Amino acid sequence: MNTSILQQNIQEFITQNSGVSITKLALQKNPFPEVEWISILNQIEAKSKAKEKLPTWFSTENIIYPSKISVEQTSSEKTATYKASLISGESLIDLTGGFGVDDYYFSKKFKVVAHCEINEDLSAIVKHNFEQLQVDNCTFYADDSSTILNNLEQKWDWIYIDPSRRNDAKGKVFMLKDCLPNVPESLDFYFEKSNSILIKTAPLLDISAGLSELKFVKNIHIIALENEVKELLFEIHNHYSGEITIKTANILKDKTETFEFILGDQLDLPFYHLPQKFLYEPNSAIMKSGGFDEVSTSFQINKLHKHSHLYTSDELIDFPGRAFEIEKVISYSKNDMKTELLNQQANITTRNFPDTVENIRKKWKIKNGGNLYCFFTTDKNDNKIVLICRKITEK
After folding, report:
1. In what residue span(s) does the THUMP-like domain sit (predicted)?
2. What is the pTM for the complete model shown?
């Protein structure tokens, strides 16, 4: 850990230059020759990345940042806050501590938190930062997590793991066994140390693939931030054999949209209908969950088509996603397209449609942007249609 960057004048320089182009700064002469210029530039770049993602760290004095990649890969404060709301207890051990953002928020819910990080330098950085952040219930271990678990010889209320994908797994279908630590292989060992485990995975992991590798799954949490899926969480409890609940959360600036359903529950078939007055597009967390029929039955709204994943109703409802008022429905034909959309400006979305957004724009000379929203999709009669809409903004 490079503590020389904690000199007051260097810290002031880092803060003053946060947000400034690193390429531009790199051309300047190092005003602090006793410290490597690259170290200072790395701090400026990482701190700039932290401004939106980690405002608590950004606004706290004497924080040391690891590489900008560690900052990019860590949880945001918003997702870490939500995650910490899901579990609680006396003790938690994090086997893949990293930059410690999750543990900062876990420390508010647990009496004791253990941060394990095999990278000694990163472990020392997080320990230093937690002192600045005034966290006093977290212990730091710089070693392999399995060794730490064995040596501590205690039971934990929760084990938290954020396995990282091995470099040699590039190009393969993403599986948990391709990650470090190899969670599926180590599950029985983990259950000797705790009955409850929370596993964070990258959003590109297929849910069914995760279920095929794990056992005793109780809940699957899908967390999106501003409609971009950031995390998939598998919550497992030793010997659990009941229903699996999928819980989605889309964290927005002023609210969090939530939706949940029982995986594999027998549902009434959704009702399919031609476009009505309003159109609904589920948020990205719901799209990731695959609970499309569950959305229809839960909100009592109609689907346009089995594979379109767009919904419609005559009465406006509060919906976890985007809502639109349909102004016009046209067929995807040469005449209708020339009359309504040729050389126009519109936001385009395709759902269950044979052509791409790029090709549609090119073919009909449609510029991006504006207040018009066009959904190119397929209706219940298998006709290719275009829904010309205005977005409903909340009052």
Report:
1. 321-391
2. 0.93
